[in-house]
Write a structure and sequence with these properties.
This protein is an alpha/beta fold. It contains 5 helices and 10 strands; from the N terminus they run H-E-H-E-H-E-E-E-E-H-E-E-E-H-E. Helix 2 packs across helix 3.
Length: 189
């Protein structure tokens, strides 16, 4: 394929969430996690690198404030071809290294910014077992945009946003992007 054909531009269609809407959503998700987990005993959050990490850390701080005890958060470091941008390969590639916390016998909540085809969370949940044997693995996402190719659903969802396959959800977190919002963009060929 020529380089001219492979280049696509993106057009912003609208803002789905502002910084304050993201914060309110995270507060709600933190309360849902605490409620479904019967507190925070044996609970750990693991952020899928990149934008799942600040999501896990923020949820961890909120839950720590609710429960009045520190909550462990870890990082699952993977390299991947994003399932929402590439059709070349959707299998994650794991970087060697520890999650940074003990997951043995614990309720683990994997955190990611956007759930799309479910090409990432399926293999990722099994990766936790490479680092111990969690009692339960759940998924928390800020945005669920549908289009499942695997029978995987998030237990905790900030917002459901039906999209077309031409559309992309861009989550921007201050820690990664020096910006705080969720945008809906569209590929323009």
């Amino acid at each position: 394929m020529s380089e001219a054909k492979s280049k696509t531009s993106l057009r912003i269609k609208g803002r789905l969430m502002s910084a304050s809407e993201i914060e309110r959503t995270l507060v709600r998700l933190a309360h849902e996690i605490v409620e479904k987990s019967n507190g925070s005993n044996d609970l750990a959050l693991v952020g899928i690198k990149r934008r799942g990490v600040p999501l896990a850390e923020r949820l961890g701080k909120l839950i720590s404030g609710i429960e009045k005890r520190k909550l462990d958060t870890g990082v699952l470091d993977i390299q991947f071809y994003r399932d929402d941008l590439s059709t070349a390969d959707v299998r994650p590639v794991v970087n060697p290294g520890a999650i940074g916390i003990d997951v043995e016998g614990r309720d683990v909540v994997l955190c990611d910014d956007v759930l799309y085809t479910a090409g990432r969370p399926g293999p990722l949940s099994t990766l936790c077992f490479d680092h111990g044997r969690p009692r339960r693995v759940q998924l928390a996402v800020l945005i669920d945009r549908g289009h499942r190719e695997l029978p995987i659903e998030a237990t905790y969802v900030g917002k459901h946003v039906p999209t077309s396959r031409r559309e992309i959800i861009e989550v921007k977190f201050q820690e990664v992007d020096n910006d705080e919002q969720v945008l809906l963009v569209e590929r323009v060929d």
